[in-house]
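Input/output pair, single chain:
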Amino acid sequence: MERAVQVAIRARLVATPAVVTLVPAASILDRNQRPVPSPSIVLGESQAVDEGDSIARNRARVYHTLHVWKREPSLEGVKVICAAIRRAIHAGRLDLGAGFHCADVRVSSMRQMRDPDGETSHGVVTVEALVEELA
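Output:
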């Protein structure tokens, strides 16, 4: 379930011209090391929480974190990228492929901060998807 959401988020981002104008598709990646390309969007952590509203236990809320990185003296560029991500996610439900249905998706939080290296800005975007596993 979490992997299906991650794949769908990346697909949405690389298919959105407003996002890839700011961050090349090759820099939207699942990678656990630094330095990352500047700018970049790193597909991060995820968590699935059972909604608790069905005895079938086939609905979960998936929280997926995206990390935005950009070498810049301010937070301006990271804020612009985060806003483009939000618009892309809110464009419609995610296509999760066979076996899953995305009932809802939204960006539930965004924050931007300066990295301790003094040269890099960092944004954190949390995407929530309500996912139903199909029989």
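The domain at 2-133 is CATH 3.30.2000.30 (STM4215-like). The chain has three helices and five strands.
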